[in-house]
Amino acid sequence: MTTRSYQRQDCPVAHALSVVGDQWTILIVRDVLGGPKRFDELQRGLGISRNLLSKRLKQMVEAGLLARRSLPNSRRFAYRLTPKALELRPAILALAEWGQNWRDQSGGTVVEITEKATGEQVGLRYCRLSDGREVQSDAISVQRLPENDSA
Amino acid sequence: MTTRSYQRQDCPVAHALSVVGDQWTILIVRDVLGGPKRFDELQRGLGISRNLLSKRLKQMVEAGLLARRSLPNSRRFAYRLTPKALELRPAILALAEWGQNWRDQSGGTVVEITEKATGEQVGLRYCRLSDGREVQSDAISVQRLPENDSA
DNA sequence: AGTATATAGTTTATTTTTTGAACTTAAAGA
DNA sequence: TCTTTAAGTTCAAAAAATAAACTATATACT
């Protein structure tokens, strides 16, 4: 969240981490993915210190990741995700899958992705954009290109 | 990398972040994805301070993310990725895509994924495990389940 | 009405990390 | 021989995170 030297790098990964790369931001998004949360809910659920949570929430609102709304008929507030933060879901699920696969002892909570309509299991895979067919991870190549920003 | 309070959480995301959630680890993996790197290459490329890089590299070797090998016929060393670190590629690419989509000014470097064989563009998508067909992101549901570790 | 509890933070002091810059050691090159 | 390169280490200063107590306001209980 704070300005780090690597923000000067022209790299989408470095840019993403400059926004969500701190110790807590991803975990806050993870919690709010489960529905809007109040300050104390987040604080208790995460075990983060209150002053840091306060600072992070402000920064995340500022960064356009969270919206702070007062709840109807009360003086309480809820934080909900913006579309920008919602789009972090693939990254978070990729981390979850890695965390599951490489944890020392088996057991513990597992994150499962299913298709709503059928209940079938779903995973993050590489797909050809043209036809949506899966491509094996060792059959892909990654390049960094300077974009000709004609957008 | 260091022990944080959220490591006590039973969550694959929190576990993943306890290993790769610090400010530099993901960027180091990103750089080494491009091939083995030496200490000074990493230091210059990242702009990280030398003592911190030294500490991170040790922790990453310890965590099984990097292997440190001496180069033939020289007293130099190269750090290369282990399979464990290689499997972070989907998470890193998901972050890259998000970073690209949500950066303020258009332009700058873009990460492009292609199929080696055909050169066709590829992206990370949700796929049904049964048949490998793509599922739209709003058609999925995410649950956290306690695993019955029969593994 | 008076007291207790809940919510959403703020304040302050301490500890831990990160940064930056200089230093070390050993080998290779000019 | 003198200089440069490589891979770190050491040390001091700055920044960030932690923990615990405190505040302010509003509702709930007795």
Helix share, percent of chain A? 25-40%
What is the count of helical runs of chain A? 6
- Approximately how much beta-strand content do the residues of chain A carry? 15-25%
- Which second-level CATH architecture of the largest domain in chain A applies? Orthogonal Bundle
CATH topology of the largest domain in chain A: Arc Repressor Mutant, subunit A
Taking Cα atoms only, what radius of gyration of chain A do you get, to the nearest Å? Answer: 18 Å
N-to-C SSE string of chain A, H for helix and E for strand = HHHHEEHHEEEE
Mean pLDDT of chain A: 92
- The CATH superfamily of the largest domain in chain A turns out to be Winged helix-like DNA-binding domain superfamily/Winged helix DNA-binding domain
Low-confidence stretches of chain A: none
Could you name the CATH class of the largest domain in chain A? Answer: Mainly Alpha
Beginning-to-end CA distance, first to last residue of chain A: 27 Å
Order of the strands making up the biggest sheet of chain A: 1-2
Largest interface: A-B, 84 and 84 residues
Strand tally of chain A, please?
A: 6
- Quaternary structure type: homodimer
Q: Can you tell me the number of structural domains of chain A?
A: 2
Judged by helices, strands and strand pairing, the structural class of chain A is alpha+beta
